[in-house]
Amino acid sequence: MDNSGGASSGVGVLDKAALVLSALESGPATLAGLVTATGLARPTAHRLAVALEHHRMVARDMQGRFILGPRLSELAAAAGEDRLLATAGPVLTHLRDVTGESAQLYRRQGDMRICVAAAERLSGLRDTVPVGSTLPMKAGSAAQVLMAWEEPERLHRGLQGARFTATALSGVRRRGWAQSIGEREPGVASVSAPVRGPSNRVVAAVSVSGPIERLTRHPGRMHAQAVIDAALRLSEALRRTG
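^ IclR family transcriptional regulator NdgR, sequence as received from the core. Prediction below:
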């Protein structure tokens, strides 16, 4: 029985696998539940569910029922990252134009942070952070933002040897943005704000950076709102489906 409602791709086994995954979207299902939901023959439903389990697209819960597997979350995260990078270009360019300073986007990678996108200042003295640069999580406003909303245990570990304190991160959480003055590099100031994924988890940090002479010793007063606006635009892009 084909229960795909006219949405057949012409590749029968894929259509049936899609039926199984769609059936699990509403929650855990026994084999009997899968048969009812998909209209597939019991041996077919079982064979497909086990094959999808092999590829980690389906898993089992504590009761042995079929559930959606971890591979789907990994693929969704990768799709979200692609969407983030696709949106980052124009958002960072706008942020650079509004502030007159170089703009960057950082993601955490273990104990480091990596610059995944940037819009450089067009003229004058620049604080260049090339795309692909790996920087420590121990200093800088982007590191503060990527650390501030971590789980307590990871937060405690991350603060060991850091140039900022737990009190500073508490202020970052309260304000919703971070600033640093000569923390990562002498003479350089920066302002950063968090980019949040669909689950509200912080997935990246947007920053502007430049010499203290231009940004002053209170860079947040000048640029926090522009950086927050850029972070919100990226967060909204990640929340959009499709």
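The beta strands are 58-60, 66-68, 102-109, 112-119, 134-136, 178-181, 188-196, 202-211.
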